[in-house]
């Protein structure tokens, strides 16, 4: 049975909408802005988080009239008619991210009104969540800072062509680099990295066991990548089942970032599709500042707890790291529903 079918008929009564803007400096050198969407009804509040990256997309913020009593699937349909963008979004992923904020808030509210958790609704037992620490580097200092507070940390890193062979070797010697995000599919962002066969060869050779995420597949890079397809992973293009089917090779790894799917239905159907094909999954984050982080951890706990999940507690994104940060694995959070 589809996982979505287990929650599609949940009743949800929406009476109010409240918004809360958050912002925080990050270790990646930018100020993160998000908006928490709170849907109130029947004495409960359901929360979701809008993780659109451009600060301007959070102001002005829409206040669609969603009051009413629905089944969850009906609420999702109502969002199709709601005006979630008073102005044109700045990035093509932004509409899905905003849609996810409202859908996740409604799912949280429906489960609370039903007096259950998402795990109970899906008849799945959450497990402790393995996580990796994701960071961009221009040297080894950040790695040392993380090890100072968490000597057992594992990492997801974003290599760039500027990395020296010495840095590659030093990172490889830690034995803790699990995923490398080549960011070869981004366009028009500050993190674009041009596909380059020599750069790819350096990274693949330095980390022969690591999962390699989002390479740019070109005529020049294909000979380097094709022998390594068993460890290639896909993140940026994954927005639903059709996007998985459109990949250049049958995938062995997918990074599941819920906000990119827009709807709960698309998220759950993609997870179901991957699981029936023995595709390994791991969770990804979007620098969430509020409830969104707990929710992506909760989904990892239910569906892919043992993956190299890029869902570390938000404190790992702070410029200065607290000595009391949690270590992996995390106790599974509730995320959605009864609290």
In short:
With 339 residues, the protein is of the alpha/beta class. 29% of the residues lie in helices and 18% in strands. The chain has a 7-stranded parallel β-sheet with strand order 6-7-8-9-10-11-12.
How many β-strand runs? 12
CATH homologous superfamily annotation of the largest domain:
Enolase-like C-terminal domain
**CATH top-level class of the largest domain:** Alpha Beta
Number of helices: 10
Which parts are unreliable, with pLDDT below 50 for 5 consecutive residues or more?
Answer: none
* Proportion of strand residues: 15-25%
Helix content: 25-40%
The spatial strand order of the largest sheet comes to 6-7-8-9-10-11-12
What is the count of structural domains? 2
Main β-sheet description:
7 strands, parallel
Q: Identify the quaternary structure here.
A: single chain
Q: Structural class of the helix and strand makeup? A: alpha/beta
SSE pattern, N- to C-terminal: EEEEEHHHEHEHEHEHEHEHEH
Overall mean confidence score, pLDDT: 95
CATH architecture of the largest domain: Alpha-Beta Barrel
The global form is globular
> How much is the radius of gyration in Å?
20 Å
- Here the CATH topology of the largest domain equals TIM Barrel
How far the N terminus sits from the C terminus, by CA atoms, comes to: 27 Å
Kindly describe this structure:
The chain is of the alpha/beta class. The protein folds into 2 domains: 4-122, Enolase-like, domain 1, CATH 3.30.390; 133-317, Enolase-like C-terminal domain (TIM Barrel). 29% of the residues lie in helices and 18% in strands. The chain contains 10 helices and 12 strands. It has helices at residues 72-81, 94-114, 118-122, 141-149, 165-174, 197-206, 222-225, 241-245, 264-276, 291-303; strands at residues 11-14, 16-25, 31-41, 44-50, 68-71, 133-135, 155-157, 177-181, 211-213, 232-234, 253-256, 280-283. The chain has a 7-stranded parallel beta sheet with strand order 6-7-8-9-10-11-12. Helix 8 (241-245) links the parallel strand 10 and strand 11. Helix 1 (72-81) packs antiparallel against helix 2 (94-114). The two termini are 27 Å apart.
């Amino acid at each position: 049975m589809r996982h979505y079918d287990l929650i599609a008929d949940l009743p949800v009564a929406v009476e109010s909408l409240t918004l809360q803007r958050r912002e925080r400096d990050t270790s990646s050198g930018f100020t993160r802005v998000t908006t928490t969407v709170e849907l109130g009804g029947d004495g409960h509040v359901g929360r979701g988080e809008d993780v659109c990256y451009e600060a301007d997309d959070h102001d002005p913020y829409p206040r669609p009239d969603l009051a009413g009593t629905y089944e969850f699937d009906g609420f999702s349909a109502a969002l199709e008619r709601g005006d979630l963008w008073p102005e044109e979004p700045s990035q093509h992923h932004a509409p899905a991210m905003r849609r996810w904020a409202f859908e996740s808030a409604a799912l949280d509210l429906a489960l609370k009104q039903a007096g259950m958790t998402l795990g109970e609704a899906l008849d799945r037992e959450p497990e402790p969540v393995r996580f990796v620490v994701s960071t961009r580097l221009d040297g080894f200092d950040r790695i040392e800072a993380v090890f100072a507070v968490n000597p057992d940390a594992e990492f997801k890193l974003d290599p760039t062509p500027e990395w020296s062979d010495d840095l590659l070797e030093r990172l490889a010697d830690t034995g803790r680099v699990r995923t490398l995000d080549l960011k070869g599919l981004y366009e028009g962002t500050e993190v674009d990295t041009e596909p380059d066969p020599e750069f790819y060869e350096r990274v693949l050779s330095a980390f022969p066991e690591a999962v390699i995420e989002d390479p740019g597949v070109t005529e020049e890079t294909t000979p380097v990548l094709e022998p390594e397809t068993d460890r290639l992973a896909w993140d940026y293009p994954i927005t639903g089942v059709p996007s998985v089917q459109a990949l250049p090779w049958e995938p062995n790894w997918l990074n599941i970032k819920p906000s990119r799917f827009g709807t709960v239905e698309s998220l759950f159907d993609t997870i179901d599709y991957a699981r029936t094909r023995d595709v390994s999954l791991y969770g990804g984050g979007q620098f969430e500042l509020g409830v969104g982080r707990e929710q992506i951890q909760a989904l990892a706990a239910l569906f892919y707890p043992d993956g190299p999940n890029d869902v570390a507690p938000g404190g790992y994104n702070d410029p200065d790291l607290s000595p009391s940060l949690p270590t992996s694995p995390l106790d599974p959070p509730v995320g959605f529903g009864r609290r």
